[in-house]
Specification:
ILV_EDD_N, 14 strands, 2 domains, alpha/beta, 37% helix, 600 residues, Glucose Oxidase, domain 1, carbohydrate metabolism
Length: 600
């Protein structure tokens, strides 16, 4: 199937925009690769330090066996990362069987946005991505590894690991998922009880019971938020082995897939004929394919923030217009909570990513001729893994959806477009995700109510102050102001207001979450208020028009452009919970539309 003209045009546009930076990047990784296997350049003393604790140190010192570095985000506080505790043992055994060795090169921090929602710790969340990239860079700096396995799942962890992998782009790299927890309390029931609690209809004991039934065991949360969007992204970009994203933890198949990833990493080093540095995989086509997957699945808006930063690490320059144009060309093929009632386990059972990739390839909506860790282009990702004799074999996946309420073919989608829109107007540039928003709420025109943090919104709600149609403006929430925390804890409040019949919307220079979506939310507005952006000129009562159909966001006050921006007292955001240590990141962060990265 010929490539869709919009996908072709956007890919070419990115390629042209990135010509100089990508060429410089490829030259750097080619120069590093030309030096040959890394360990050959270490002195005897260097090597002795590196191998001292290894039982097979003689193999490392005297043989040409590949040595695989493991960069892990393991901790046992995050359900998604707890399964990684066992992975180094599995990887070392698999490496030995494949004639290789493996070492844990280092660990990276992995915080949980679910724990820090609405708390001061959330103001460290976005920049934890940069810390993860730096920590992974430290792990890889020992320069003793012929390939790398990156173990991470959740919100900032995969983006941070990918930035590091791109920075060490001469090293072959495979990303290894841990899988989602089994299904628990249905997500719509959880959301209903949250709204009842926000409205004062149930007590905290009922809320706690529901939450514990939702988040109940090892593995990724089962809704389609940022963590599971990350896993989709790695598969669409060819960095996972096919079909691995949504296999549950602590199963025989999960363990076998981890072993298979290890074996594949050993096959693509610079010691043999199949050398495949990860920087060559991370080209313009790979990032376009990732965006296509994001739109087709209705994935997290957080990836609109992370993808530009990840791409920049590989010399590829993305713009939010690229997301908008791809969204307009790509149909929404999945309904997974919060865009539907199903969770990711149901999605996987219905045909999952293999079915979607096959459909999108047939429709000409994906770049097929790309490099992947599995080899064979993206066409190999229509296969799904099966166990045979304790080992993984890949077979052709289902060509039909097994549940058309969850997953539909490209020719008969849930919606003709992916549902992500660029917004632009006198209030700046930002995005809105409308895949879960009722069409009658795609245009909201209402007076503004100005807040400078989400607790103020909750207090106004509890005091019954919001009784009419309102655009709730939460400003000074950008990366330079307070680290750009998610405002996901506002979701129950906004949902209750909408359910009362009010026409409400959120407008912010902050971000929401992949778990949000039924209330129209114009997010990532740039330039942010803390940098004198347009939101800093808004006043209570200003009429705001949010038009997702036309892609505009404007203040209708006639004197708006002549006003001076207000400033805010941000002193409360600068200290406590480690925030003082992150002042360097806040000062260096770029605009949200460019990825809000402080290190690139």
């Amino acid at each position: 199937m010929p490539l869709d003209p919009v996908i072709d045009r956007v890919t070419d546009r990115i390629r042209e925009r990135s010509a100089a930076t990508r060429a410089a990047y490829l030259a750097r990784i080619a120069a590093a690769a030309s030096e040959g296997p890394r360990r050959a350049h270490l002195s005897c003393g260097n090597q002795a330090h590196a191998y001292a604790a290894m039982p097979d140190k003689d193999d490392l010192a005297q043989s040409r066996k590949p040595n695989i570095g493991i960069v892990t985000a393991y901790n046992d506080m995050l359900s998604a990362h707890q399964p990684y505790e066992r992975f180094p043992e599995i990887i070392r055994a698999a490496a030995s069987r494949a004639g290789a060795t493996a070492q844990v090169a280092g660990g990276v921090p992995a915080m949980c946005d679910g724990v820090t929602q609405g708390r001061a710790g959330m103001e460290l969340s976005l920049f934890s991505r940069d810390v993860i990239a730096l920590a992974a860079g430290v792990a890889m700096s020992h320069d003793t590894f012929d390939a790398a396995l990156y173990l991470g799942v959740c919100d900032k962890i995969v983006p941070g690991l990918l930035i590091a992998a791109a920075s060490f782009g001469h090293v072959p790299s495979v990303f290894v998922p841990a899988g989602p927890m089994p299904s628990g309390l249905p997500n719509d029931e959880k959301a209903r009880i949250r709204q009842q609690f926000a409205a004062g209809e149930v007590d905290r004991a009922a809320l706690m019971t529901a939450e514990m039934a939702s988040y109940h065991g090892p593995g990724t949360c089962t809704f389609y938020g940022t963590a599971n969007s990350n896993q989709m992204l790695m598969e669409f970009m060819g960095l996972h082995l096919p079909g691995t994203s949504f296999v549950n933890p602590n199963t025989e198949l999960r363990d076998a897939l981890t072993a298979a990833a290890t074996e594949r990493a050993a096959q693509i080093t610079n010691l043999g004929d199949g050398f495949l540095p990860v920087g060559r995989i991370l080209d313009e086509c790979a990032f376009v394919n990732g965006i296509v997957g994001l739109m087709a699945t209705g994935g997290s808006t957080n990836l609109v923030l992370h993808l530009p930063a990840m791409a920049r690490a590989a010399g590829v320059i993305l713009d939010i217009a690229d997301f908008h144009d791809i969204s307009e060309a790509v149909p929404l093929m999945a309904r997974v909570y919060p865009n539907g009632l199903a969770d990711v386990n149901h999605f996987h059972a219905a045909g999952g990513l293999g079915f979607m990739i096959g459909q999108l390839l047939d429709a000409g909506l994906l770049n097929a001729d790309v490099l992947t860790v599995a080899g064979g282009g993206l066409g190999s990702y229509v296969r799904e893994p099966r166990l045979r004799g304790g080992r993984v074999e890949w077979q052709k996946g289902s060509a039909e959806s097994l549940n058309d309420r969850i997953l539909r073919p490209a020719r008969d989608p849930f919606a003709a477009t992916g549902g992500l829109k660029q917004l632009q107007g006198n209030l700046g540039r930002g995005v809105i995700k409308v895949s879960a928003v009722s069409p009658d709420r795609h245009v909201i025109e209402a007076p503004a109510r100005i807040f400078t943090d989400q607790e103020q919104v909750k207090a106004a709600f509890r005091a019954d102050e919001i009784t009419g149609d309102t655009v709730i403006v939460v400003r000074f929430q950008g990366p330079a102001a307070n680290g750009m925390p998610e405002l996901h804890s506002l979701t129950p409040v906004l949902s209750v207001l909408q359910d009362r019949g009010l026409r409400v919307a959120l407008l912010t220079d902050g971000r929401m979450s992949g778990a949000s979506g039924k209330v129209p939310a114009a997010i990532h507005l740039s330039p942010e208020a803390a940098k004198g952006g347009p939101l800093a000129r808004l006043r209570d009562g200003d009429m705001i028009r949010l038009d997702a159909e036309r892609g505009t966001i404007d203040c209708l006050a006639p004197d708006f452009d002549t006003r001076s921006p207000v400033t805010a007292d941000l002193s409360a955001n600068q200290h406590g919970m480690g925030r003082e240590m992150f002042s360097l990141f806040r000062a260096a962060a770029g605009d949200a539309t460019d990825g809000a990265c402080a290190i690139l």
